[in-house]
Automatic annotation (TrEMBL), chain A:
Record PANTHER family: CASEIN KINASE II SUBUNIT BETA
Region span, Disordered: 59-91, 284-336
Name of the molecule in the record: Casein kinase II subunit beta
A Pfam family that the UniProt record links to this protein: CK_II_beta
Polar residues: compositionally biased ranges: 323-336
Example of a GO MF term: kinase activity
Subunit structure and binding partners: Tetramer of two alpha and two beta subunits.
Biased composition (Acidic residues): 59-79, 287-297
Regions crossing the membrane: none
Ranges annotated as biased composition (Basic residues): 305-315
Main function: Regulatory subunit of casein kinase II/CK2. As part of the kinase complex regulates the basal catalytic activity of the alpha subunit a constitutively active serine/threonine-protein kinase that phosphorylates a large number of substrates containing acidic residues C-terminal to the phosphorylated serine or threonine.
From TrEMBL, chain B:
Identification of the protein by name: Casein kinase II subunit beta
Family statement: Belongs to the casein kinase 2 subunit beta family.
Annotated region described as Disordered, given as residue ranges: 225-255
Biological source species: Apiospora rasikravindrae
Role this protein plays: Regulatory subunit of casein kinase II/CK2. As part of the kinase complex regulates the basal catalytic activity of the alpha subunit a constitutively active serine/threonine-protein kinase that phosphorylates a large number of substrates containing acidic residues C-terminal to the phosphorylated serine or threonine.
Coiled-coil intervals: none
Gene3D superfamilies: 2.20.25.20, protein kinase ck2 holoenzyme, chain C, domain 1 (1.10.1820.10)
Amino acid sequence: MSTSSGTPESWISSFCSLLGHEYFAEVSEEFIEDDFNLTGLQTQVAMYKEALEMILDVEPEDDEDEEEEEEEEEDESIEGGDNRMRQGERRNHSRIASDLSVIESSAEMLYGLIHQRFICSRAGIQQMSEKYELGHFGICPRSNCEQARTLPVGLSDIPGEDTVKLFCPSCLDVYVPPNSRFQTVDGAFFGRTFGALFLLTFPEYDLTKRGADVLAGTRVTEDDKDMLNGMYVCNIAPGLGTSKIYQPRIYGFRVSEVARSGPRMQWLRDKPDDMSELDEARRFVEDNPDSEDEDDASMNLNGRPIRRLRARRRQGQGGQNGSPMTVEQNGVESEL
Amino acid sequence: MDEFASESDSDYTSYWRDWFISSRGNEYFCEIDEDYLTDRFNLTGLNTEVQYYQYALDLITDVFDLDCDDDMRETIEKSARHLYGLIHARYVVTTRGLAKMLDKYKKADFGKCPRVFCHSHPLLPMGQTDVPNQKPVKLYCVRCEDVYNPKSSRHAAIDGAYFGTSFHNIMFQVYPALVPPKSSERYIPRVYGFRVHSSAALIRWQNIQRTDMLRRLRKLEVESGFKGDQGEEDLDDEDEEEDEIDVEGDTNVVG
């Protein structure tokens, strides 16, 4: 773990190889070195500067005076031979053990918070997609999802609130990771956005494929490329629907909905047999054939129809282009 | 008896059933009463299902005293495990069987629901078919009414027919008070706080299905089991709330 031991492994890669840290991507140093990406984190992490140095494997600097001299040196010599020399000189500066453990935990927190941002950047989400293809994030425990691959998500963006969960794109639900070692990993280190953003970024993954087919990196075939609400129809909750709902039976007879112990939660696993029912904008236009002409009038009348019409237009634009990541400004932070 | 004990690899237990239910991987089974096993009526038809039926039954009831080689013994042992499972499927739907399984359920011996919004509700083992050797055991959560795979591979190898398709439903028919309050709490995929259009549309549709169901139940004056479901007004309130949130999240992300 300690950087001064002379091991070639960086702090980041040793952190990611720890037991229970299998879901983490390795944040690139360029991403961390860009101050813009760290905006606002100073106030969230104790001993921010020291923690950041630890993550980047930079030797700690105690004194203000030394800082200036070494700043120029540092850039070139971090991996150079005189790095070792400086280490020797610095031994007297070395921190007491308790201090180190505080920095260590701050560094983990800081890394997690940077990680939350990184995996939503272009480079980060790409790295996560490689991990997804390798099956690093596990599978859905739900029987009718037939081992669909899950994605790590947080239920909150604020650290310390909840542990990491697994989001299943097949049933749109979240599950507790099966192994207890993940119960020490903070959900905020993955964040609320990643799971949904992943599906929008990589619409080409065929979510109906299982097992070996996923390994082959199956993409949605040309025949299945019908779009609905900004996603391929075949990829919208493939694990849900009439045939995927558990039907309770006693000796072959279905338990009635009216029974005290009857089924009440089937809506949660349901989806329309005809998915075009979900195309709310189109249905609205069909139900209200006049509204198109009265566009201006209805805008002034009430909010609902306008919203739907606008939704339809947005969809028209976005329909051809499933990935927000292909739009340049979304990738800005990773390119700076 | 002594002879049997020394031959099997469990010197510390004298009874086959004790050994069986306490061995690793068999945590889902409860102990079948001696009385139930000795009543031939309960075993009707099983003699055709199991090889060496009589020997297997003798082994289960600890009266096995056949002198035979290891291969034969292994075969009978296997038959006994299968027979025990098949009797177990019948036993767990009896009053005493239900009570024993209820104890195990309360201790969460069958594991807890992995779904986050079920808040670790205990599970019950179930089969997807009553025909043996077809499908492995699954776990049923009464809170979300869905079926999950066991976490551990040693449980995933157990035959689902040893629990059957009816047991877990009978459990809640017999003990309706055990049915937990239902909740419409759920996960909503979001990007930077905004709902994603495709899943949001599906969730809206599902909410309509739920509202329809609650209306149907209210018409029949059946308690729905949902928390805070008192009357029509509540429902309308809920709808309005939904609308407000919709307006707020107007800019649903479209991919």
